[in-house]
Amino acid sequence: MKKTLAINSSESSKLDRKTIERNRRVHMKSLCHQLSSLVPPNLKPSKSKLMLGQQDQLDLAARYIKHMTERIEKLKRQKEQAMSSNQSNDYRKMLNKNVNTKLPIFELRDLGSCIQVMLVSGLNKTFMLYEVISVLEEEGAEVVNASFSTIGDKTFYVVHAQVKISRVGVETTRVCERLQELITPLEIWPEDG
Q1: Which among 182, 189, 175, 176 has a CA at the least distance from the CA of 121?
Q2: What are 170-191's pLDDT values in tens digits?
Q3: What Cα–Cα distance (Å) separates residue 127 from each residue in 54, 120, 143, 186?
Q4: What pTM, to 2 d.p., does this model score?
Q5: Do residues 139 and 174 lie in contact, with contact meaning Cβ atoms separated by under 8 Å?
Q6: Is the pLDDT assigned to residue 7 strictly greater than 70?
Q7: pLDDT digits (tens, 9 = 90+) for 58-74
Q8: Is 186 left (phi over 0), alpha (psi -120 to 50) or beta?
C-alpha cells in the first residue's frame, strides 16, 4: 500500500510540474501577444508575408521600444531648449527694464552633459560669435545651436553645446575664464607696470 502511495505521489508531482509549466507557457505566450499588439500596425510587415514567429515579434517590439526611447530623449532635449529659450526671453525683458545694467553680461550654465552660454552686449562689442564658439570647441564641447538677436542697442546671444566625450567632460571654470577674457572690454583690464 505504501508503495502504491509513493508511485501515486510521484506521478501527481510530475503532473503538477507539467501543469505548472503549461500554465507558464500559456502566460508567456499571452504576454508576448500583448507586447506585440502594442507595436503600431504600420511598423509590422505586410500581410503578404508569413506570420511573424514569436522571436520576430519580440525583436520588432524591442526595435520599437528603442526607437521610442530615442524619440523621447530627442523630445526632452527640444523641451530643454524651448525652456531655456523662454528663460532667456525673461532675461531679455529684465534687462530692457533695467537700463543701468553694465554690459557685457555673461552667464554660463552647466547642465551636466550640456552647456548653455548666454551673452548680452552693447553695439560696441569686443568679440564675435564665432570666437565664443571656438572657445567652447577648443575646450571639448560641440556646439549644437547658436543664435542671436538684437533688441534696441543690445545684442543677445544664446549658445547650446554638449560634451564631445562624456568620460572627459568639459572644465566649465576654464571655459568661463576664457569667455570672460574674451568678452570683457580692454579698458576694464588692469594695466601692468
Answers
A1: 182
A2: 677 888 888 888 777 544 444 4
A3: 61, 11, 17, 11
A4: 0.43
A5: yes
A6: no
A7: 888 888 888 888 888 88
A8: alpha
- Looking at residue 63, its amino acid is R
168's grid cell:
572627459
The backbone torsions φ and ψ at residue 126, rounded to the nearest 5 degrees and listed phi first, read -105, 10
Q: Are 140 and 114 contacting, i.e. CB atoms less than 8 angstroms apart?
A: no
d(CA 90, CA 87): 5
Using the predicted structure, report yes or no on whether residue 3 has a pLDDT greater than 60: no
Distance CA 104, CA 183 (A): 7
Please give the order of strands across the beta sheet that includes 105-110.
105-110, 114-122, 154-163, 141-151
